[in-house]
Amino acid sequence: MAAESLSPRLPVTDRTRHRRLREQGSLDRAELEAILDAGFVCHLGVVAEGRPLVVPTVYGRDERQLYLHGSVASRSLAGGTPVCVTVTHVDGLVLARSVFEHGVNYRSAVVHGTARKVTDPEEKLAGLRLLSEHAAPGQWSYARRPNRRELAATTLLALSLEEASVKIRTGAPDDGDGPDAELGLWAGVLPLTSAWGTPVTDPALPPNTPVPGHIARREGTRHG
Amino acid sequence: MAAESLSPRLPVTDRTRHRRLREQGSLDRAELEAILDAGFVCHLGVVAEGRPLVVPTVYGRDERQLYLHGSVASRSLAGGTPVCVTVTHVDGLVLARSVFEHGVNYRSAVVHGTARKVTDPEEKLAGLRLLSEHAAPGQWSYARRPNRRELAATTLLALSLEEASVKIRTGAPDDGDGPDAELGLWAGVLPLTSAWGTPVTDPALPPNTPVPGHIARREGTRHG
Protein backbone atom coordinates (compact mmCIF):
# COMPACT_ATOMS: atom_id res chain seq x y z
CA MET A 1 0.00 0.00 0.00
CA ALA A 2 2.31 2.72 -1.27
CA ALA A 3 1.52 6.34 -0.50
CA GLU A 4 1.21 7.48 -4.11
CA SER A 5 -2.36 7.34 -5.30
CA LEU A 6 -3.81 5.73 -8.39
CA SER A 7 -4.57 7.80 -11.45
CA PRO A 8 -8.07 9.36 -11.40
CA ARG A 9 -8.33 8.35 -15.06
CA LEU A 10 -8.43 4.59 -15.57
CA PRO A 11 -5.71 3.34 -17.91
CA VAL A 12 -6.80 1.95 -21.29
CA THR A 13 -5.27 -1.49 -21.83
CA ASP A 14 -5.94 -4.34 -24.23
CA ARG A 15 -8.22 -5.77 -21.59
CA THR A 16 -10.11 -2.63 -20.63
CA ARG A 17 -10.58 -0.96 -24.02
CA HIS A 18 -14.30 -0.53 -24.70
CA ARG A 19 -15.39 -2.17 -27.92
CA ARG A 20 -19.16 -2.10 -27.93
CA LEU A 21 -21.11 1.04 -28.61
CA ARG A 22 -24.42 0.85 -26.87
CA GLU A 23 -23.06 0.96 -23.38
CA GLN A 24 -21.14 3.88 -22.05
CA GLY A 25 -17.62 3.04 -21.02
CA SER A 26 -16.22 5.28 -18.33
CA LEU A 27 -12.58 6.00 -17.60
CA ASP A 28 -13.40 7.89 -14.44
CA ARG A 29 -11.96 6.23 -11.34
CA ALA A 30 -14.71 7.86 -9.22
CA GLU A 31 -17.30 5.84 -11.18
CA LEU A 32 -15.34 2.66 -10.51
CA GLU A 33 -15.27 3.43 -6.81
CA ALA A 34 -18.98 4.28 -6.70
CA ILE A 35 -19.85 0.94 -8.31
CA LEU A 36 -17.62 -0.97 -5.90
CA ASP A 37 -19.00 0.92 -2.90
CA ALA A 38 -22.62 0.24 -3.85
CA GLY A 39 -22.23 -3.56 -3.55
CA PHE A 40 -20.54 -6.12 -1.36
CA VAL A 41 -20.71 -9.34 -3.40
CA CYS A 42 -18.51 -9.67 -6.48
CA HIS A 43 -17.90 -12.45 -8.96
CA LEU A 44 -14.32 -13.67 -8.80
CA GLY A 45 -13.00 -15.40 -11.91
CA VAL A 46 -9.91 -17.59 -11.95
CA VAL A 47 -8.47 -20.14 -14.33
CA ALA A 48 -8.53 -23.58 -12.72
CA GLU A 49 -6.87 -26.39 -14.66
CA GLY A 50 -7.20 -24.39 -17.84
CA ARG A 51 -10.90 -23.70 -17.41
CA PRO A 52 -12.72 -20.66 -16.07
CA LEU A 53 -14.24 -20.74 -12.59
CA VAL A 54 -16.53 -17.92 -11.40
CA VAL A 55 -17.56 -17.77 -7.76
CA PRO A 56 -19.39 -15.14 -5.73
CA THR A 57 -17.55 -13.72 -2.75
CA VAL A 58 -17.53 -10.65 -0.50
CA TYR A 59 -15.13 -7.74 -0.84
CA GLY A 60 -14.03 -4.43 0.59
CA ARG A 61 -11.52 -1.86 -0.62
CA ASP A 62 -9.21 0.97 0.20
CA GLU A 63 -7.86 3.61 -2.19
CA ARG A 64 -5.59 1.21 -4.04
CA GLN A 65 -6.76 -2.34 -3.50
CA LEU A 66 -9.70 -4.64 -3.41
CA TYR A 67 -9.77 -7.16 -0.55
CA LEU A 68 -11.61 -10.40 -1.20
CA HIS A 69 -12.67 -13.31 0.93
CA GLY A 70 -10.76 -15.99 -0.93
CA SER A 71 -11.74 -19.27 0.69
CA VAL A 72 -14.19 -20.14 -2.08
CA ALA A 73 -11.46 -20.14 -4.66
CA SER A 74 -8.46 -20.91 -2.46
CA ARG A 75 -7.58 -24.17 -4.22
CA SER A 76 -7.17 -22.28 -7.47
CA LEU A 77 -5.21 -19.38 -6.06
CA ALA A 78 -1.75 -20.62 -5.22
CA GLY A 79 0.35 -17.48 -5.50
CA GLY A 80 0.23 -14.75 -8.13
CA THR A 81 -2.81 -16.07 -9.99
CA PRO A 82 -4.43 -13.87 -12.62
CA VAL A 83 -7.97 -13.00 -11.55
CA CYS A 84 -10.89 -10.99 -12.84
CA VAL A 85 -13.32 -9.48 -10.36
CA THR A 86 -16.65 -8.20 -11.59
CA VAL A 87 -19.26 -6.22 -9.67
CA THR A 88 -22.59 -5.65 -11.41
CA HIS A 89 -25.66 -3.68 -10.39
CA VAL A 90 -28.79 -4.31 -12.45
CA ASP A 91 -30.90 -1.14 -12.48
CA GLY A 92 -33.70 -2.07 -14.83
CA LEU A 93 -34.96 -3.66 -17.99
CA VAL A 94 -34.84 -1.57 -21.16
CA LEU A 95 -38.04 -2.41 -23.02
CA ALA A 96 -37.70 -1.18 -26.58
CA ARG A 97 -40.03 -1.28 -29.58
CA SER A 98 -38.07 -4.19 -31.03
CA VAL A 99 -36.73 -7.24 -29.23
CA PHE A 100 -33.32 -6.54 -30.76
CA GLU A 101 -33.07 -3.19 -28.96
CA HIS A 102 -34.03 -4.63 -25.58
CA GLY A 103 -31.38 -4.40 -22.94
CA VAL A 104 -30.48 -3.83 -19.35
CA ASN A 105 -29.67 -0.67 -17.46
CA TYR A 106 -26.68 -1.57 -15.34
CA ARG A 107 -23.42 -0.48 -13.82
CA SER A 108 -20.50 -2.86 -13.92
CA ALA A 109 -16.86 -2.79 -12.89
CA VAL A 110 -14.41 -5.39 -14.14
CA VAL A 111 -11.06 -5.40 -12.33
CA HIS A 112 -8.12 -7.28 -13.88
CA GLY A 113 -4.99 -8.21 -12.05
CA THR A 114 -3.03 -10.71 -10.05
CA ALA A 115 -4.35 -11.77 -6.68
CA ARG A 116 -1.98 -11.74 -3.76
CA LYS A 117 -2.68 -13.80 -0.66
CA VAL A 118 -2.44 -11.50 2.33
CA THR A 119 -0.22 -13.16 4.94
CA ASP A 120 0.97 -10.31 7.17
CA PRO A 121 -1.35 -10.49 10.22
CA GLU A 122 -1.60 -6.71 10.52
CA GLU A 123 -2.57 -6.21 6.89
CA LYS A 124 -4.94 -9.18 7.14
CA LEU A 125 -6.73 -7.65 10.10
CA ALA A 126 -6.91 -4.27 8.37
CA GLY A 127 -8.18 -5.89 5.16
CA LEU A 128 -10.83 -7.92 6.99
CA ARG A 129 -11.94 -4.78 8.74
CA LEU A 130 -12.43 -3.05 5.37
CA LEU A 131 -14.33 -6.07 4.10
CA SER A 132 -16.50 -6.30 7.22
CA GLU A 133 -17.26 -2.57 7.40
CA HIS A 134 -18.05 -2.52 3.69
CA ALA A 135 -20.78 -5.16 4.00
CA ALA A 136 -21.93 -4.49 7.54
CA PRO A 137 -20.90 -1.04 8.77
CA GLY A 138 -20.61 -0.88 12.55
CA GLN A 139 -20.17 -4.61 13.12
CA TRP A 140 -16.38 -4.41 13.47
CA SER A 141 -16.85 -2.40 16.69
CA TYR A 142 -19.94 -4.32 17.81
CA ALA A 143 -19.11 -8.01 17.26
CA ARG A 144 -16.14 -9.98 18.56
CA ARG A 145 -13.16 -9.42 16.28
CA PRO A 146 -11.16 -12.27 14.78
CA ASN A 147 -8.66 -13.97 17.08
CA ARG A 148 -5.30 -15.35 15.95
CA ARG A 149 -6.73 -18.76 15.09
CA GLU A 150 -9.59 -17.29 13.09
CA LEU A 151 -7.24 -14.92 11.27
CA ALA A 152 -5.06 -17.86 10.29
CA ALA A 153 -8.11 -19.78 9.06
CA THR A 154 -9.22 -16.95 6.77
CA THR A 155 -7.97 -16.60 3.20
CA LEU A 156 -7.81 -12.95 2.26
CA LEU A 157 -6.81 -11.81 -1.20
CA ALA A 158 -5.63 -8.38 -2.30
CA LEU A 159 -5.99 -7.09 -5.86
CA SER A 160 -4.77 -3.76 -7.19
CA LEU A 161 -7.49 -1.44 -8.49
CA GLU A 162 -5.19 -0.12 -11.18
CA GLU A 163 -6.60 -1.90 -14.24
CA ALA A 164 -10.36 -1.81 -14.46
CA SER A 165 -13.13 -1.40 -16.96
CA VAL A 166 -16.35 0.44 -16.11
CA LYS A 167 -19.55 0.25 -18.11
CA ILE A 168 -22.81 2.02 -17.41
CA ARG A 169 -26.09 2.05 -19.28
CA THR A 170 -28.87 4.35 -18.15
CA GLY A 171 -32.05 5.78 -19.53
CA ALA A 172 -34.62 5.04 -22.18
CA PRO A 173 -34.47 2.63 -25.13
CA ASP A 174 -32.51 3.79 -28.18
CA ASP A 175 -35.22 3.26 -30.80
CA GLY A 176 -37.46 6.22 -29.95
CA ASP A 177 -36.41 8.10 -33.10
CA GLY A 178 -35.93 5.16 -35.45
CA PRO A 179 -38.39 3.56 -37.88
CA ASP A 180 -39.79 1.33 -35.10
CA ALA A 181 -41.19 4.42 -33.36
CA GLU A 182 -43.92 4.26 -36.03
CA LEU A 183 -45.17 0.97 -34.57
CA GLY A 184 -46.94 2.94 -31.84
CA LEU A 185 -45.82 0.57 -29.11
CA TRP A 186 -45.15 1.45 -25.51
CA ALA A 187 -41.47 1.52 -24.66
CA GLY A 188 -39.57 2.46 -21.55
CA VAL A 189 -37.71 1.14 -18.57
CA LEU A 190 -38.85 -1.21 -15.81
CA PRO A 191 -36.64 -0.24 -12.87
CA LEU A 192 -35.27 -2.82 -10.46
CA THR A 193 -34.30 -1.78 -6.96
CA SER A 194 -32.82 -3.62 -4.04
CA ALA A 195 -33.45 -2.65 -0.43
CA TRP A 196 -32.69 -3.86 3.08
CA GLY A 197 -35.58 -5.44 4.93
CA THR A 198 -36.56 -5.78 8.60
CA PRO A 199 -33.77 -7.39 10.67
CA VAL A 200 -34.63 -10.94 11.75
CA THR A 201 -33.37 -11.72 15.25
CA ASP A 202 -31.58 -15.07 15.71
CA PRO A 203 -34.19 -17.50 17.17
CA ALA A 204 -31.53 -18.47 19.75
CA LEU A 205 -32.09 -15.03 21.33
CA PRO A 206 -35.16 -13.78 23.23
CA PRO A 207 -37.45 -12.35 20.51
CA ASN A 208 -37.55 -8.91 22.11
CA THR A 209 -33.76 -8.49 22.05
CA PRO A 210 -33.28 -4.92 20.75
CA VAL A 211 -31.70 -4.57 17.32
CA PRO A 212 -28.61 -2.31 17.49
CA GLY A 213 -29.08 1.08 15.84
CA HIS A 214 -26.35 0.60 13.24
CA ILE A 215 -28.31 -2.39 11.91
CA ALA A 216 -31.87 -1.20 12.47
CA ARG A 217 -31.36 2.03 10.59
CA ARG A 218 -30.47 0.27 7.34
CA GLU A 219 -34.04 -1.05 7.05
CA GLY A 220 -35.74 0.37 3.98
CA THR A 221 -32.56 1.92 2.59
CA ARG A 222 -31.50 1.12 -0.90
CA HIS A 223 -28.74 -1.27 -1.76
CA GLY A 224 -26.81 -1.22 -5.04
CA MET B 1 -31.87 -30.65 -27.88
CA ALA B 2 -32.30 -34.40 -27.60
CA ALA B 3 -35.52 -35.78 -26.22
CA GLU B 4 -34.01 -37.57 -23.25
CA SER B 5 -34.05 -35.40 -20.17
CA LEU B 6 -31.24 -34.52 -17.81
CA SER B 7 -30.86 -36.38 -14.54
CA PRO B 8 -32.90 -34.83 -11.69
CA ARG B 9 -29.85 -35.39 -9.48
CA LEU B 10 -26.89 -33.22 -10.49
CA PRO B 11 -23.76 -35.26 -11.23
CA VAL B 12 -20.83 -34.89 -8.83
CA THR B 13 -17.65 -34.10 -10.75
CA ASP B 14 -14.23 -32.77 -9.77
CA ARG B 15 -15.55 -29.31 -10.52
CA THR B 16 -18.88 -29.55 -8.74
CA ARG B 17 -17.93 -31.51 -5.59
CA HIS B 18 -18.75 -29.41 -2.51
CA ARG B 19 -15.78 -28.86 -0.28
CA ARG B 20 -16.77 -26.24 2.23
CA LEU B 21 -19.07 -26.99 5.10
CA ARG B 22 -20.94 -23.87 6.05
CA GLU B 23 -22.98 -23.62 2.93
CA GLN B 24 -25.41 -26.24 1.87
CA GLY B 25 -24.60 -27.84 -1.43
CA SER B 26 -27.58 -29.17 -3.29
CA LEU B 27 -27.61 -31.90 -5.91
CA ASP B 28 -31.25 -31.29 -6.73
CA ARG B 29 -31.75 -30.17 -10.32
CA ALA B 30 -35.00 -28.46 -9.30
CA GLU B 31 -32.97 -26.13 -7.04
CA LEU B 32 -30.67 -25.32 -9.95
CA GLU B 33 -33.65 -24.48 -12.14
CA ALA B 34 -35.27 -22.35 -9.44
CA ILE B 35 -32.08 -20.28 -9.05
CA LEU B 36 -31.75 -19.82 -12.81
CA ASP B 37 -35.41 -18.88 -13.16
CA ALA B 38 -35.25 -16.27 -10.39
CA GLY B 39 -32.68 -14.15 -12.23
CA PHE B 40 -31.89 -12.95 -15.73
CA VAL B 41 -28.32 -11.63 -15.48
CA CYS B 42 -25.48 -14.11 -15.05
CA HIS B 43 -21.72 -13.76 -14.86
CA LEU B 44 -20.04 -15.48 -17.77
CA GLY B 45 -16.43 -16.52 -17.26
CA VAL B 46 -14.06 -17.36 -20.08
CA VAL B 47 -10.30 -17.71 -20.43
CA ALA B 48 -8.96 -14.97 -22.71
CA GLU B 49 -5.27 -15.15 -23.57
CA GLY B 50 -4.66 -17.31 -20.54
CA ARG B 51 -6.39 -14.96 -18.13
CA PRO B 52 -9.90 -15.04 -16.68
CA LEU B 53 -12.55 -12.65 -17.96
CA VAL B 54 -15.91 -12.31 -16.18
CA VAL B 55 -18.69 -10.33 -17.84
CA PRO B 56 -22.36 -9.89 -16.96
CA THR B 57 -24.84 -10.96 -19.59
CA VAL B 58 -28.49 -12.01 -19.95
CA TYR B 59 -29.69 -15.57 -20.25
CA GLY B 60 -32.67 -17.85 -20.68
CA ARG B 61 -33.02 -21.60 -20.60
CA ASP B 62 -34.95 -24.66 -21.63
CA GLU B 63 -34.88 -28.08 -19.98
CA ARG B 64 -31.39 -28.91 -21.15
CA GLN B 65 -29.55 -25.75 -22.04
CA LEU B 66 -28.76 -22.23 -21.02
CA TYR B 67 -28.88 -19.60 -23.77
CA LEU B 68 -26.65 -16.58 -23.31
CA HIS B 69 -26.28 -13.28 -25.07
CA GLY B 70 -22.68 -13.68 -26.11
CA SER B 71 -21.67 -10.41 -27.74
CA VAL B 72 -19.88 -9.17 -24.64
CA ALA B 73 -17.46 -12.06 -24.74
CA SER B 74 -17.58 -12.88 -28.43
CA ARG B 75 -13.91 -12.18 -29.08
CA SER B 76 -12.99 -14.84 -26.54
CA LEU B 77 -15.50 -17.42 -27.68
CA ALA B 78 -14.30 -18.78 -30.99
CA GLY B 79 -15.75 -22.28 -31.05
CA GLY B 80 -15.92 -24.82 -28.23
CA THR B 81 -14.57 -22.57 -25.52
CA PRO B 82 -14.80 -23.73 -21.90
CA VAL B 83 -17.03 -21.37 -19.95
CA CYS B 84 -18.36 -21.01 -16.43
CA VAL B 85 -21.70 -19.31 -15.89
CA THR B 86 -22.65 -18.20 -12.40
CA VAL B 87 -25.99 -16.87 -11.19
CA THR B 88 -26.10 -15.51 -7.65
CA HIS B 89 -28.96 -14.17 -5.54
CA VAL B 90 -27.98 -12.35 -2.36
CA ASP B 91 -30.74 -12.80 0.22
CA GLY B 92 -29.27 -11.13 3.26
CA LEU B 93 -26.38 -10.44 5.59
CA VAL B 94 -25.73 -12.98 8.34
CA LEU B 95 -24.75 -10.89 11.36
CA ALA B 96 -23.17 -13.19 13.92
CA ARG B 97 -21.71 -12.59 17.39
CA SER B 98 -18.21 -12.74 15.98
CA VAL B 99 -16.91 -11.16 12.79
CA PHE B 100 -15.49 -14.55 11.79
CA GLU B 101 -18.98 -16.09 11.68
CA HIS B 102 -20.44 -13.30 9.58
CA GLY B 103 -21.65 -14.34 6.17
CA VAL B 104 -24.20 -14.00 3.44
CA ASN B 105 -27.46 -15.79 2.82
CA TYR B 106 -27.44 -16.56 -0.86
CA ARG B 107 -28.36 -18.96 -3.62
CA SER B 108 -25.86 -19.61 -6.37
CA ALA B 109 -25.65 -21.82 -9.40
CA VAL B 110 -22.36 -22.43 -11.18
CA VAL B 111 -22.67 -24.10 -14.58
CA HIS B 112 -19.56 -25.61 -16.20
CA GLY B 113 -19.29 -26.57 -19.81
CA THR B 114 -18.35 -25.68 -23.32
CA ALA B 115 -20.18 -22.87 -25.05
CA ARG B 116 -21.52 -23.48 -28.50
CA LYS B 117 -22.30 -20.59 -30.84
CA VAL B 118 -25.83 -21.04 -32.10
CA THR B 119 -25.82 -20.64 -35.88
CA ASP B 120 -28.99 -22.38 -37.08
CA PRO B 121 -31.49 -19.51 -37.60
CA GLU B 122 -34.39 -21.54 -36.23
CA GLU B 123 -32.59 -22.49 -33.02
CA LYS B 124 -31.30 -18.93 -32.73
CA LEU B 125 -34.79 -17.50 -32.91
CA ALA B 126 -36.07 -20.08 -30.40
CA GLY B 127 -33.13 -19.38 -28.07
CA LEU B 128 -33.62 -15.61 -28.29
CA ARG B 129 -37.26 -16.10 -27.52
CA LEU B 130 -36.38 -18.03 -24.36
CA LEU B 131 -33.91 -15.33 -23.39
CA SER B 132 -36.38 -12.52 -24.08
CA GLU B 133 -39.32 -14.17 -22.31
CA HIS B 134 -37.11 -15.02 -19.35
CA ALA B 135 -36.17 -11.39 -18.71
CA ALA B 136 -39.27 -9.67 -20.02
CA PRO B 137 -42.25 -12.05 -20.24
CA GLY B 138 -44.78 -10.95 -22.82
CA GLN B 139 -42.43 -8.79 -24.87
CA TRP B 140 -41.83 -11.45 -27.52
CA SER B 141 -45.47 -11.14 -28.57
CA TYR B 142 -45.67 -7.39 -27.98
CA ALA B 143 -42.49 -5.95 -29.51
CA ARG B 144 -41.21 -6.35 -33.06
CA ARG B 145 -39.31 -9.63 -33.37
CA PRO B 146 -35.78 -9.86 -34.74
CA ASN B 147 -35.48 -9.73 -38.54
CA ARG B 148 -32.88 -11.66 -40.51
CA ARG B 149 -30.27 -8.91 -40.28
CA GLU B 150 -30.73 -8.53 -36.53
CA LEU B 151 -30.58 -12.30 -36.02
CA ALA B 152 -27.29 -12.41 -37.88
CA ALA B 153 -25.92 -9.56 -35.79
CA THR B 154 -26.69 -11.33 -32.50
CA THR B 155 -24.26 -13.73 -30.89
CA LEU B 156 -26.17 -16.42 -29.03
CA LEU B 157 -24.41 -19.09 -27.01
CA ALA B 158 -25.79 -22.41 -25.81
CA LEU B 159 -24.44 -24.25 -22.78
CA SER B 160 -25.59 -27.63 -21.48
CA LEU B 161 -27.07 -27.59 -17.99
CA GLU B 162 -25.62 -31.02 -17.27
CA GLU B 163 -22.73 -30.08 -15.00
CA ALA B 164 -23.62 -27.56 -12.33
CA SER B 165 -22.98 -26.79 -8.71
CA VAL B 166 -25.67 -25.32 -6.46
CA LYS B 167 -25.04 -23.71 -3.09
CA ILE B 168 -27.59 -22.22 -0.75
CA ARG B 169 -27.23 -20.63 2.66
CA THR B 170 -30.34 -19.67 4.60
CA GLY B 171 -31.25 -18.79 8.15
CA ALA B 172 -29.65 -17.51 11.31
CA PRO B 173 -25.96 -17.25 12.24
CA ASP B 174 -24.24 -20.43 13.37
CA ASP B 175 -22.86 -19.20 16.69
CA GLY B 176 -26.09 -19.10 18.71
CA ASP B 177 -25.06 -22.14 20.77
CA GLY B 178 -21.29 -21.56 20.90
CA PRO B 179 -19.20 -19.74 23.53
CA ASP B 180 -19.84 -16.39 21.80
CA ALA B 181 -23.53 -16.64 22.74
CA GLU B 182 -22.37 -15.59 26.23
CA LEU B 183 -21.36 -12.19 24.86
CA GLY B 184 -24.99 -11.13 25.01
CA LEU B 185 -24.85 -9.47 21.59
CA TRP B 186 -27.67 -9.15 19.11
CA ALA B 187 -27.33 -11.48 16.16
CA GLY B 188 -29.54 -12.24 13.22
CA VAL B 189 -30.10 -11.64 9.54
CA LEU B 190 -30.57 -8.40 7.64
CA PRO B 191 -32.62 -9.43 4.60
CA LEU B 192 -32.05 -7.96 1.17
CA THR B 193 -34.83 -7.97 -1.37
CA SER B 194 -35.08 -6.83 -4.92
CA ALA B 195 -38.30 -5.64 -6.52
CA TRP B 196 -39.57 -4.16 -9.77
CA GLY B 197 -40.46 -0.47 -9.64
CA THR B 198 -42.88 1.76 -11.51
CA PRO B 199 -42.40 1.56 -15.31
CA VAL B 200 -40.83 4.72 -16.76
CA THR B 201 -42.27 5.60 -20.17
CA ASP B 202 -39.75 6.54 -22.87
CA PRO B 203 -39.68 10.39 -22.99
CA ALA B 204 -40.01 10.06 -26.79
CA LEU B 205 -43.63 8.95 -26.18
CA PRO B 206 -46.57 11.03 -24.94
CA PRO B 207 -46.35 10.77 -21.12
CA ASN B 208 -49.86 9.34 -20.82
CA THR B 209 -49.15 6.39 -23.14
CA PRO B 210 -50.67 3.43 -21.30
CA VAL B 211 -48.24 0.82 -19.97
CA PRO B 212 -49.14 -2.65 -21.30
CA GLY B 213 -50.53 -5.00 -18.65
CA HIS B 214 -47.77 -7.58 -18.95
CA ILE B 215 -45.30 -4.87 -17.88
CA ALA B 216 -47.45 -2.88 -15.45
CA ARG B 217 -48.33 -5.91 -13.36
CA ARG B 218 -44.72 -6.65 -12.48
CA GLU B 219 -44.53 -3.45 -10.42
CA GLY B 220 -43.92 -4.25 -6.77
CA THR B 221 -43.29 -7.95 -7.39
CA ARG B 222 -40.13 -9.48 -6.09
CA HIS B 223 -37.15 -10.28 -8.23
CA GLY B 224 -34.51 -12.89 -7.31
Describe the structure.
Two copies of one chain form a homodimer. In chain A, strands 2-3-4-7-6-5 form a six-stranded antiparallel barrel. Chain A contains five helices and eleven strands; from the N terminus they run βαβββββαααββββαβ. Chain A folds into two domains: 24-173 and 187-192, Electron Transport, Fmn-binding Protein, Chain A (Pnp Oxidase, Chain A), CATH 2.30.110.10; 195-224, no CATH class. Chain A is an alpha+beta fold and 224 residues long. The mean pLDDT of chain A is 91. The interface between A and B is large, with 93 and 93 residues. Strand 9 (188-196) of chain A pairs antiparallel with strand 10 (200-201) of chain B, so a sheet runs across the interface. Chains A, B: InterPro entries: Pyridox_Oxase-rel (IPR024747), Split_barrel_FMN-bd (IPR012349). Chains A, B: This is Pyridoxamine 5'-phosphate oxidase family protein. Chains A, B: Residues 201-224 are annotated as: Disordered.
The helix/strand order of chain A is EHEEEEEHHHEEEEHE
* Main sheet: strand order of chain A: 2-3-4-7-6-5
CATH level 4 superfamily of the largest domain in chain A: Electron Transport, Fmn-binding Protein, Chain A
Q: How many β-strand runs of chain A?
A: 11
Helical coverage of chain A, percent range: 10-25%
Figure out the total of helices of chain A: 5
Organism (chains A, B): Streptomyces hyaluromycini
Protein name (chains A, B): Pyridoxamine 5'-phosphate oxidase family protein
Region (Disordered) (chains A, B): 201-224
InterPro entries (chains A, B): Pyridox_Oxase-rel, Split_barrel_FMN-bd
